[in-house]
Design goal:
Blueprint (H helix, E strand, L loop, with lengths): L26 E6 L3 H16 L3 E2 L8 E6 L4 H13 L5 E5 L1 H4 L1 H5 L5 E2 L2 H11 L7 E5 L1 E2 L10 H5 L3 E2 L2 H13 L4 E5 L14 H9 L6 E4 L4 H4 L3 H7 L8 E3 L7 H7 L5 H14 L4 E8 L6 H14 L3 E6 L16 H23 L6 E11 L2 E5 L5 E5 L7 E9 L4 E5 L1
Parallel strand pairs: 1-2, 1-3, 3-4, 4-5, 6-9, 9-10, 11-12, 12-13, 16-18
Antiparallel strand pairs: 7-8, 14-15, 14-17, 15-16, 17-18
Helix pairs in contact: 1-5, 7-8, 8-10, 10-12, 13-14
Bound molecules: iron/sulfur cluster.
């Protein structure tokens, strides 16, 4: 474990050593912003707090202390987090996550919180001994990445790639399954890079998890095309394992080779197409999710058309559209930003195309009866299930997580179906 990498800020003056131990026997309001990796940190944090005699409350007004697990991946999220910090500035306030690692001054301008370094959460969790109970579990297989994307502030916060060992990840997964998890979200800033720093193979990891006993499924997290492309054959085959959802989250960001070059992404649109075709051969009908940034500095109308063309070619089931926003400390933030009206128009066109493709891809599924595993309760009287491809199916009733039943897909709601037991 490299503690002195550029993004490793364990010596960060803002991080208060032992900050966590000051939260004992009190009522805590914990709010999480951002990605699945951050959710994993919050679940660990909740387990630690409970072990320290704290009660977690859902209303900040009832709390003795406020903990915010922050994200700053885009400007919009940064503004949301700062608003929340300002709101609680006069309370006992703690921050963790990415923002205190890269934007101390922005935080210091609105409040004076105690910083809990994410590493402190991991170190303390290792000593707790219990695991979060519940139908959905998060396993953080690695943190940091190998990338040098010019727009990305996460890289500056989380640092270079650090993969946990296959044995550690498998053991944590087994413990979560033992505590009731039926869906295990395997995550990292770039899961595709897992093991590249330790000589391990992601396909081996997926096989190791799939060999565990118990009724559960693994949802593989986001994989950068640059790290996935060289190992796509083995990963595509691992997606056929019975306990692995055939769901690929592949952020393409742009369909223009010129813009991908400026972003420092490290792959070409053709390589993206090859990856998608390879997964389609191994796991026909797999679920494809992608991310697109529109309005990156220098993106011409022609570049944007190439992005639309790439989406028409790879036909994703879901597209997360982000309008580019300059992030402090990143190379791209030095470039001339584009007027908002252009970004707005391009994101509108992207969403329209994304929904069109999603509906076309959903059409053959409607009316079919397929096996669905119940994964969680949405609210009393409503349950979420998942198909083999991780398509969401909403069913009436309080169904038991882990139950697998044949379900007729009744209505297409674009990003999920309603269903009824067949
Ligand atoms: S792969 Fe790129 S976008 Fe992803 S965390 Fe790393 S630098 Fe950021």
């Amino acid at each position: 474990m490299n503690r002195d990498g550029p993004g490793d800020r364990s010596g960060d003056p803002a991080a208060t050593p032992g900050a966590l131990s000051t939260l004992a026997g009190v009522r805590v309001y914990l709010r999480t912003f951002g990605c699945t990796y951050n959710a994993g940190d919050s679940w660990k944090l909740a387990e630690i707090l409970r072990a320290q005699g704290c009660n977690l409350v859902s209303d900040p007004a009832l709390a003795d202390a406020i903990v915010l697990n922050t994200c700053t991946v885009v400007g919009k999220t940064e503004r949301k987090v700062l608003r929340e910090l300002r709101r609680h500035a006069q309370r006992p306030l703690y921050v963790t996550g990415c923002m205190p690692l890269v934007q101390e001054e922005a935080i210091g301008a609105v409040c004076s919180p105690v910083t809990i370094h994410p590493r402190e959460i991991h170190d303390a969790y290792a000593k707790v001994g219990s695991v979060p109970h519940g139908p959905v579990g998060v396993v953080q297989a690695c943190r940091g990445c190998l990338g040098s994307c010019t727009y990305c502030i996460t890289r500056l916060a989380r640092g270079p790639l650090e993969s946990r060992s296959l044995r550690d990840v498998t053991r944590e997964t087994a413990r979560l399954v033992g505590a009731g998890a039926v869906e295990v979200r395997l995550t990292g800033q770039d899961l595709g890079a897992w093991g590249r720093d330790t000589g391990q193979s992601l396909a081996d990891l997926l096989r190791s998890l799939a060999a565990l006993s118990g009724r559960f499924m693994v949802r593989p997290g986001m994989m950068n095309p640059a790290t996935l492309y060289p190992v796509m054959d083995s990963i595509a085959e691992a997606f056929t394992l019975p306990k692995v959802f055939s769901s690929l989250h592949l952020p393409v960001q742009s369909g223009s080779g010129t813009i991908l070059g400026k972003m420092g992404r490290g792959y070409s649109p053709d390589q993206v197409v090859s990856i998608v075709e390879r997964f389609e051969r191994a796991a026909p009908g797999f679920l494809l999710t992608t991310d697109v940034i529109c309005g990156f500095p220098g993106e011409t109308g022609g570049d944007f058309s190439k992005t639309l063309a790439l989406l028409r070619r790879i036909r994703p089931d879901r597209v997360n559209v982000t309008r580019y926003s300059p992030r402090p400390g990143t190379p791209a933030s030095l470039e001339k930003d584009m007027p908002d009206r252009i970004k707005k128009e391009r994101s509108r066109r992207l969403r329209t195309l994304a929904e069109e493709i999603a509906r076309e891809k959903n059409a053959p599924w409607k009316g079919r009866t397929v096996p669905v595993m119940i994964t969680e309760s949405i609210r009393p009287g409503s349950s979420m299930g998942r198909t083999r491809e991780y398509r969401g199916v909403v069913l009436e009733g309080d169904l038991c997580p882990g139950t697998v039943l044949p379900v007729r897909l009744v209505e297409d709601r674009t990003y999920y179906f309603t269903g009824e037991p067949a």
